[in-house]
Design goal:
By secondary structure, the chain is mostly helical. It has 2 domains: 72 residues; 138 residues, Tetracycline Repressor, domain 2, CATH 1.10.357. It contains 10 helices and no strands.
Length: 212
């Protein structure tokens, strides 16, 4: 009984430390979100005229340089995180659109439309500015944050239903193709015509069905 009481007493420092760590984790997560949101705002304002600067990002976030370097070793690391965050947001939006459909072909159509929505005028300039800033990110920092990874994962289930022999590979190939095409539209500052959306959708369906 005495040992049990002692063990409970010894747990007090651990419990207090855990509460402190939990609060610190929440505070740090809030700092990172503020830095990411500030980076997006600075990138949006600067467009493709000038690269975002750490000083501007920190000022917009209302944080210190110490806070910035607590989470990111360089501006490239922040830009890589911004790219990854954007990819996850887009994937969540696309998934939400796909969930409105029940048939696999219709899900693929929603997937294509969701990705190409990034070319719409009210979104395109910000997306382009983020990609432009991402051009300065080294391969070792940026490759693992490719937007094609979460987006390709969304196609695996409908591709399997459509008869793909290798849904993971075919979905990845389709994601690379469509994200690349989206980038083309962004750099040309154009949006795809309905016939082009149809064509791109058919390309993806053919990839799933193994059409040659």
């Amino acid at each position: 009984m005495e040992n049990a009481i002692l063990n409970q007493e010894n747990d007090v420092p651990s419990r207090i430390a855990q509460r402190t760590l939990a609060k610190r984790e929440a505070d740090y997560a809030s700092e990172v979100r503020r830095l990411l949101d500030a980076a997006l705002e600075v990138v949006r304002r600067s467009g493709t005229r000038s690269r975002a600067r750490v000083a501007d990002i920190v000022a917009t976030a209302g944080l210190s340089n110490d806070a910035f370097y607590r989470h990111f070793k360089s501006k490239d690391a922040l830009v890589a995180a911004l790219l990854e965050d954007g990819a996850q947001r887009l994937a969540r939006y696309v998934e939400h659109q796909m969930d409105k459909e029940t048939e696999p072909a219709s899900k693929v159509r929603r997937w294509v439309e969701g990705i190409l929505s990034q070319t719409e005028p009210e979104i395109a300039e910000t997306t382009l500015a983020v990609l432009w800033n991402g051009g300065s990110v080294g391969d070792s920092v940026g490759d693992r944050h490719s937007a094609t990874v979460p987006l390709g994962a969304l196609l695996r289930a409908p591709f399997q239903e459509l008869g793909s022999e290798d849904p993971a590979l075919d979905a990845s190939l389709a994601a690379h193709a469509v994200v690349g095409k989206m980038s083309d539209y962004l750099w040309r500052r154009t949006t795809p015509a309905p016939a082009e959306v149809d064509r791109i959708t058919e390309f993806c369906l053919n990839a799933a069905r193994g059409a040659r």
